[in-house]
Design brief:
The chain is an alpha+beta fold. The longest helix is centred in the N-terminal third of the chain and has 13 residues. The radius of gyration is 13 Å and the shape is globular.
């Protein structure tokens, strides 16, 4: 995914994972399949005052809307 403002494709949250390990596993799988994606910006901090990020609502992955169905199929078994 690019922060280039000329890219006007809509992004959507694909899924929220309970752990950063699962989210990174899914992120790697999606990228290996050529699907641009990124971790949800609000969930990538390592923790706040010793509280793991996962306990603050999980770790999300964002994809382009036109990749959503294929991406969801690829990560459906990752929890």
């Amino acid at each position: 995914m690019s922060s280039n403002s000329s890219d006007s494709r809509q992004t959507v949250r694909l899924k929220v994972f309970e752990s950063s390990f699962a989210a990174n596993l899914a992120l790697t799988k999606l990228r290996d399949e050529g699907i641009p994606c990124q971790l949800d910006g609000g969930s990538v901090w390592p923790g706040v005052v010793g509280v793991p990020t996962e306990s603050l609502g999980g770790v999300g992955i964002i994809v382009y809307a036109d990749d959503y169905d294929r991406a969801l199929d690829l990560v459906k078994d990752i929890n």
